[in-house]
Amino acid sequence: MKKKYYIGISLLLAFLIIIFDQISKWIIASSMKIGDSYEVIPHFLNITSHRNNGAAWGILSGKMGFFYIITLVILVVLVLFYIKEAKYNLFMQVAITLLFAGALGNFIDRVFNGEVVDFIDTNIFGYDFPIFNIADSSLTIGVIFVIIALLKDTTKKN
């Protein structure tokens, strides 16, 4: 039986996420100074110009060589996983595409700017969540989707 891939959907989704991510980062970087903040939804959502030269929450700050290598490995693994494991499963293909687009969006920032532009600043139930961007959101949603897809697959087999 022939493997079924939804390449068109995956490419379009990845393209839209990367474009939206890069345009939003460009708007923030070109129109706001680092530290500037605008309240969008009181006590919940601000747009705050921030830079991160590390991973999530600034972990491993300044280790760009490490991030280049790790990101390239992750991108290759995601493509291989897409080809080998996501056949017939549009949901898993979308999940992997979200992971790929998010990783690539932040990788582009690291390569061209040496840091990632973050700007989505939320306060959730009194917790001032670390500032993030669209690529980070794509990564997070992708991880959640992969977990859901794997759990669904596991329950099907049992």
Automatic annotation (TrEMBL):
The Gene Ontology biological process terms listed for this entry are:
proteolysis
Q: Which UniProt keywords apply?
A: Aspartyl protease, Cell membrane, Hydrolase, Lipoprotein, Membrane, Protease, Transmembrane, Transmembrane helix
Q: Where are the transmembrane segments?
A: 7-28, 65-83, 90-109, 129-151
EC supergroup of this enzyme: hydrolase
One GO term in the molecular function aspect is:
aspartic-type endopeptidase activity
**Pfam families for this protein:** Peptidase_A8
GO CC aspect terms: plasma membrane
The record's active-site residues are D118, D136
Under the heading HAMAP family, the entry gives: LspA
Name of the protein in its database record: Lipoprotein signal peptidase
User: Lineage from the top down?
Assistant: Bacteria, Bacillati, Bacillota, Bacilli, Bacillales
What is the gene called? lspA
